[in-house]
Amino acid sequence: MDNKIRQDSLYQELTKVLKGIDLMVVDVRKSENRGSVHVVVTITNKEHSVGVDECAKAHRLIYPRLTLLENSRNIDLEVSTPGLQRNFKDLYEFELFSGRRVRVYDSLKKEWVEGIISKLSEIGVELENARFDDSKESLATYIIAPQDVQKAKLAYSWEDM
Q1: Which CATH class for the 92-160 domain?
Q2: Sign of dihedral through CA atoms 58, 64, 70, 73?
Q3: Top-tier CATH class for 5-80
Q4: Domain boundaries along the sequence of the chain
Q5: Could you read off the pLDDT tens digit of each residue along the chain, which spans 161 residues?
Q6: What are φ and ψ of residue 121, in 5° steps?
Q7: What is the dihedral of CA 52, 158, 148, 94, to 10 degrees?
Q8: Residues 81-85: contacts with CB within 8 Å, 24+ apart?
Q9: d(Cα 115, Cα 100) in Å, to the nearest integer?
């Protein structure tokens, strides 16, 4: 899994814009087609789930900045939430979603493991109350090395509500 989103110039610019309203950029995708620019921004925050109001507020802040950056008024901007079962695209997302339930495919063990994200460090992703798919026993903590994270996604559980 990559760890490159924070080097992206558009990500850095939009992070500065949204910092003032306590929103964080999860992902930014940009594509150009026949003179128009399509940008998809995924946002979150630490306190609660992001809703329509926060997406609308972020849209109103981002759009003017994009028109200046792209030197175009032909911009299609979409602002969305990560959703309940977001597929992670970058290791950075483990920091963003700290404290949330996640499913990670550990390529070393060749199994899915589910747990609560405790932290991301140089040694790996630390999960609390981790459990492998085929096991009923729970591990207090489980660490997966960054190079062993093949896939990851947010997991939804009624117990977390």
Answers
A1: mainly beta
A2: positive
A3: alpha beta
A4: 5-80, 92-160
A5: 788 888 999 999 999 999 999 999 999 999 998 888 999 999 999 887 899 999 999 999 999 999 999 887 789 999 999 998 999 999 999 999 999 999 999 999 999 999 999 999 889 999 999 999 878 888 999 999 999 999 999 998 766 65
A6: -135, -175
A7: 40
A8: 81/42, 81/43, 81/44, 81/49, 81/50, 81/51, 81/55, 82/26, 82/42, 82/44, 82/50, 82/154, 83/154, 84/154, 84/156, 85/153, 85/154, 85/155, 85/156
A9: 8
CB–CB of 51/102 below 8 Å?
no
Q: Which two tokens stand for residue 87?
A: 């597929």
DSSP for 51-62 reads -HHHHHHHHHHH
Torsion, Cα 138 92 90 145, to 10 degrees, reads -50
pTM: 0.87
Indicate the residue type of 63. Y
Q: Do domains 5-80 and 92-160 have the same CATH topology?
A: no
